Amino acid sequence: MNYDYIMIRYGEIGTKGKNKKDFINCLYNNIKNAFKQYKQLTFSNKYDRLYIELNGCDYRELYPTLEMISGISSFSPVYFVEKDIEVLKETFKKIIREIDFKSFKVDARRADKNFPLESMKINTEIAGVILKNKKVNVDVHNPEIKFSIEVRNEGIYIYHEKHLGIGGYPLGVGGKALVLLSGGIDSPVACFEMMKRGVTIECIHFASFPYTSKASEEKVLDLVHKLNVLQTNIKLHIIPFTKLQEAIYEHVDESYAITIMRRMMYRISELVAKRNNCLALVTGESIGQVASQTLNSMQVINEVTNMVVLRPLACFDKLEIIDIAKKIDTYDISIKPFEDCCTIFTPKNPVTKPRLETVINFENKFNYQELIDEIMGKIETITINNKEKENEYL
Ligand code: ATP
Ligand code: MG
């Protein structure tokens, strides 16, 4: 028996007061968009649930995408029948023929109070049919399989599988942020965490040709392609950082180079963010992970901007970050060897407690503003979407 629909639940956003309608519409459009290449699917929005009508499409094909759409709390493939107890019983005879189980429970809910049978009565009637047609037992506490029956105005939905979504809010309801994306493990995970909260992203990457290779840039492009599963069009701004970095190493004591380089990154990121209407900067920093990520360092680095800087991984352990990177499939790309603009110029003893006065003295030794202005005229911006990648492989 083929499933008729996938029923989608959206948990958290259902509690969002007067924004609720906008949130649901946004999720509805995101789902439609994600499956636009599946011409046979149709979509509907009814009573706190969204439905995808399968029209013969293999429901399992849709799972990986549904598992990556923010705002979905869970989903189930469902059978749909008319509101008639005899039809319901006949349907159950067919369903149980196709699946193996030893114990079960029936859980009926009657949202449509005009349906003549109460929930308890539906439970006993259907349990009776199952017991009569298969050698199985009822187990209300620990059943191997739970058949859920929802009687609604439009008909009856039946399901026994429930898959978890990633939760969060639908992409697009939370404004836009600019993520500082390196080729490492952390920053793609930071992108994911932002998108999960409904925030659309653009990315900025600092490249140091010829110290960093074309392969490093390709790696960043590959990472953004992976993130396309959540957001279809992602802008990537590539910053030619070399001249400014060389100037830093010429004028700044080695132990302060990273601190100052990061301040320059923040300054440039702020300009790019404002130019592109991004409301916040985002990094993959995690407290204490490296010298530039102590609270002391972060404070001195952050001092150059009054934009909101979000660090979704601030309190994550590396292992937790790696788990998420594997889930979103960026891990294997991130661990490929590459040269990051930071790793190339890594000093032996970076300060962990930089002093702001010292930082400012070093910065006054050269005209960094002129170099930043020059960079701002040479930014390369690419928009990355799934389609491009498909074409690349053709
Ligand atoms: P990641 O795995 O993201 O590279 P990391 O632990 O290696 O993180 P750092 O290299 O110190 O940490 O960088 C901290 C953060 O600074 C990164 O998560 C990223 O947001 C930003 N960043 C570092 N290098 C770059 C770069 N070349 N371009 C853009 N952002 C960068
Ligand atoms: Mg890095």
Polypeptide structure, described:
The protein has 394 residues and is α/β, with parallel strands linked by helices. The chain has 2 domains: 5-164, VC0802-like; 176-393, 3-Layer(aba) Sandwich (Rossmann fold), CATH 3.40.50. It has helices spanning 20-34, 63-66, 85-98, 119-133, 186-196, 214-227, 242-251, 254-275, 295-302, 318-327, 331-334, 341-344, 356-363, 368-376, 386-393, and strands at residues 5-9, 42-46, 49-53, 74-81, 103-110, 137-138, 145-152, 155-159, 163-164, 176-180, 200-207, 234-240, 280-282, 308-310, 380-384. Strands 1, 2, 3, 4, 5, 6, 7, 8 and 9 form a 9-stranded mixed sheet that branches. Helix 6 (214-227) links the parallel strand 11 and strand 12. It is elongated. The site of magnesium ion has 4 residues, from loops.
Q: How do the strands and helices of this protein lay out in sequence?
A:
Blueprint: E1 5-9, H1 20-34, E2 42-46, E3 49-53, H2 63-66, E4 74-81, H3 85-98, E5 103-110, H4 119-133, E6 137-138, E7 145-152, E8 155-159, E9 163-164, E10 176-180, H5 186-196, E11 200-207, H6 214-227, E12 234-240, H7 242-251, H8 254-275, E13 280-282, H9 295-302, E14 308-310, H10 318-327, H11 331-334, H12 341-344, H13 356-363, H14 368-376, E15 380-384, H15 386-393
Parallel strand pairs: 5-6, 5-7, 10-11, 10-13, 11-12, 13-14
Antiparallel strand pairs: 1-3, 1-4, 2-3, 4-8, 4-9, 7-8, 12-15
Helix pairs in contact: 3-4, 7-8, 8-9, 8-14
